Amino acid sequence: MHRGKGMKFVGDSRVPAERKPNVPKDYSEYPGKTEAFWPNFLLKEWMVGAVFLIGYLILTVSHESPLERKADPTDAGYIPLPDWYFLFLYQLLKYKYAAGDYVLIGTIVIPGLAFGALLLAPWLDRSPERRPSRRPVATGLMLLALISITYLTWESVVTHDWNKAAQQGKIITSKVDKKDPGYEIFKGQSCIGCHGSELSGGSGPSLIGTGLKPEEIMKIARKGRGAMPANAFKGNDADLKKLATFISKQKK
To answer: Looking at the chain, which terminus has fewer C-beta neighbours within 10 angstroms, N or C?
Structure first.
């Protein structure tokens, strides 16, 4: 046999004869399909972001936020209402087993168990199945959470006194002359704690439009009436007269 007789050589066109470094082509070789990150792409991103930012700022200036009146810690009659995504927790605190002496259950224990179960969900059910019917633990927890949140949110909405909330949430311009010397005495005697900074009442009655004369108000301040104790006013007669005159001028 001659050397090489019967031998065959097989080649693979997918294997290049010359080894080239694995470096992607320059973007210039793909006209219209790509661009440089700096400055072209980044500049476009900045321009789009600036348009949205300016638009949002214009929106906030032209349409004021639906805020309520300023917080008044002396207003004991205020009914708070959280945003919609916290309504179910707000409703939970209305039940006896989650409020009062058991408030820790409603604020820590029940939410802690719920969010803890959410965090532990990947370990509580490690089944590779994708059908809900074959994953009873994960499906049951999800349905329980959805039903509970939906029910508590609905109960919070239907049991809330919306008419009263609308009235108390209005921003009311103060009609009280806070530059009056009588108001300074009113504030200095800590009357705000019971009657509010606007004299509209809190734990004590409203002092707006009482119809009382200064002499009658002075008598109440000295001798007391109802929940107001005797000798609640600690100042002199001159200051008491200024305060009584100031209160008697407050009209509805």
So the answer is: N
